[in-house]
Every structure is written in C-alpha cells, then in structure tokens.
C-alpha cells in the first residue's frame, strides 16, 4: 500500500467537504476549491476524517492513490490556512514595486517587467526586494512563483536574479585567467 495514500486526512471543523460522484468540493474560511478526481479512487468521509482507497494493487492505481490523497490534503489545508511562497531579488538595481494588484519588476532589462496575478492569488512586497505570493490553491501559488522566478533565474556566476527565499544558488568559479593562473 502507498504510505502517503493510507494516511487519513483530518478535516478541521471550519472546513466542509462535499463528495459527489468524482467531484470533491472543499469550503473553508478562505474560500472554496473544486477538483475532479479519478473515478476509480474511492473516497470516504467519516467523523471528520477523509480517506482514500484504491481498487487494486496495479501500478497505475498505486500512483493515483498517493496523488489523490495529496491533492485532497492540499485542498483542505488551502481553504483553512492558505499557502505562501516567498521570492527574493538580488542584484544591483533589481527592485520590485506593487502596481495595483500586480507587480512591476526592474531586473536588468531595458524595460520594466509587469506581472499580473491569476485569479485567487495576491502579491505582497516587503521593501524593494522581497515578494510574497499567497493563495488557497497550492498548485497555482507554486506555478505563479515559478513564472516570476523564470523572468530572471539566478545566475550561477554572479548570483544575480530572482530566487526562492529558501533556495541555495550553487555558485560556479569564474575564469581562471581572472584569478591569475599559474604557468
């Protein structure tokens, strides 16, 4: 059995989970999420505990088992607590400003880069170099953070660029000629 798929999902009192055929709806204090799951996965909601079971031990059912459980757990956590992803800009002249509900970034191009948030995503800017992306859908929060990071990924030589706050950028040595190569 899948170790992740077997784990039950504790549903908080503030969250309502509705299962209709293969459509799961979660409502909580932060909003509502709807997801269609694979029709072969069986869901059971008993006394505030949501569990997922699979029909057979086939390889496709085993992988779907853990995936379905993780998606449902993220839905429950999202509508109750929400998700955040933090980004940092590093480099001379690199800065970010909030423009309406979007962002305007100066990241070394000749023009500013405008970023508009998808539905359900909010941006917060701390100082001029830190961005916080918040939302209830973990998938959309991560995708938006990756899209912003992709505007100017961190350079392995200089370290300049947009990086996740917990990311360690692997630095490479420069040219040996700059240091003074031995002959």
Characterize the structure shown.
This protein is an alpha+beta fold. The chain has two domains: 3-80, Outer Surface Protein A, domain 3; 83-164, Ribosomal protein L6 (Outer Surface Protein A, domain 3). The chain has helices spanning 3-6, 59-80, 138-149, 176-179, and strands at residues 9-10, 16-20, 23-28, 31-36, 42-46, 49-53, 83-90, 95-99, 102-106, 113-115, 122-126, 130-135, 161-164. β9 (102-106) and β10 form a beta hairpin. The protein is elongated.
Helix segment tally:
4
Strand elements, count: 13
Which structural class matches the secondary elements? alpha+beta
What value does the average pLDDT take?
Answer: 91
Can you tell me the CATH topology of the largest domain? Outer Surface Protein A, domain 3
CATH superfamily of the largest domain: Ribosomal protein L6
Radius of gyration: 22 Å
CATH class of the largest domain: Alpha Beta
> From N to C, what is the helix and strand string?
HEEEEEEHEEEEEEHEH
Low-confidence stretches: none
Question: Mind telling me which CATH architecture of the largest domain this is?
Answer: Alpha-Beta Complex
Question: How many domains make up the coordinates?
Answer: 2
Gap between N and C termini? 62 Å
Shape: elongated
**Share of β-strand residues:** 35-45%
